[in-house]
Design the sequence.
């Protein structure tokens, strides 16, 4: 059993999961706001031996070193790689701190967002329309960049409605349900591209946007930007291209200015935070705690 678990920021657990946490620690503290700086995060976790964190804040070496009792960090968000994590996992390893994350809990909502927003734009349901006449997804050439869990959901959802789907991924997926194309070839071929990448992975630069060309549609379903900002703005300045994302963080640090661009549609909320997704997330966070305590 832990002495003290601290949820250092909003972690999107269900009420049922929150009520179960006292079964894992003598004291449980929830913070319902994001720590404004590193010093505040240190203050919150300084005497904790277990911490829960979402994807919003960074937990670096100095924070970890400032919590001498800390032995467990539970990421209430996706953990795909050390590079993309918002927790310094290498430093945690050196300090003897275990870091557990979760995977595959919000992907269904991402697929629904992809279909919903694309259909609205193709048909003109939302005030903007891609071409002079409304269009279906049937035979639309779509490229999915990053065929992980969420990318696969997006690809399968669009294929179900008749889109011609191809993909690029740094690792090939066998057996292949969809045609693989190198990144630049994919961009030249498709009319719509979805980036479904891990956080801190940028693949679209000036060269890629030139290959993509004009009168195209780009979706970013990542937590962070998948593109070079200057290159994106230059591509949008042509006037016939459209960009969509669900989360503000998908636009990067200059999000508020970018949201004023008439060719950018940002929903301002995460498509992977449905009721069902939170249930799946909560179950996996609790299983990770159980696993750690059982040794």
Sequence:
């Amino acid at each position: 059993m832990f002495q003290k678990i601290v949820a250092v920021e909003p972690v999107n657990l269900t009420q049922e999961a929150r009520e179960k946490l006292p079964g894992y620690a003598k004291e449980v503290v929830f913070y319902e706001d994001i720590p404004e700086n590193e010093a505040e995060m240190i203050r919150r976790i300084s005497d904790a031996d277990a911490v829960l964190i979402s994807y919003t804040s960074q937990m670096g070496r100095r924070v970890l070193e400032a919590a001498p009792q800390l032995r467990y960090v539970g990421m209430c968000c996706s953990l795909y790689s050390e590079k993309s994590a918002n927790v310094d996992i290498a430093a945690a390893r050196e300090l003897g701190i275990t870091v557990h994350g979760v995977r595959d809990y919000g992907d269904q909502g991402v697929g629904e967002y992809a279909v919903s927003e694309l259909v609205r734009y193709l048909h003109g349901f939302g005030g903007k329309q891609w071409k002079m006449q409304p269009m279906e997804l049937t035979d639309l050439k779509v490229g999915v960049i990053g065929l992980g869990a969420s990318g696969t959901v997006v690809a399968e959802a669009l294929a179900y409605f008749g889109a011609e789907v191809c993909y690029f991924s740094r690792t090939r997926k066998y057996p292949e349900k969809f045609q693989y194309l190198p990144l630049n070839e994919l961009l030249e071929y498709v009319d719509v591209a979805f980036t479904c990448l891990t956080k801190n992975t940028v693949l679209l630069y000036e060269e890629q946007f030139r290959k993509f060309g004009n009168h195209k549609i780009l979706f970013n379903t990542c937590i962070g930007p998948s593109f070079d900002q200057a290159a994106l703005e230059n591509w949008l300045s042509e006037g016939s291209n459209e960009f969509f994302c669900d989360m503000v963080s998908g636009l990067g640090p200059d999000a508020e200015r970018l949201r004023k661009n008439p060719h950018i549609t940002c929903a301002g909320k995460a498509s992977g935070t449905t009721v069902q997704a939170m249930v799946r997330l909560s179950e996996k966070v609790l299983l990770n705690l159980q696993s750690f305590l059982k040794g």
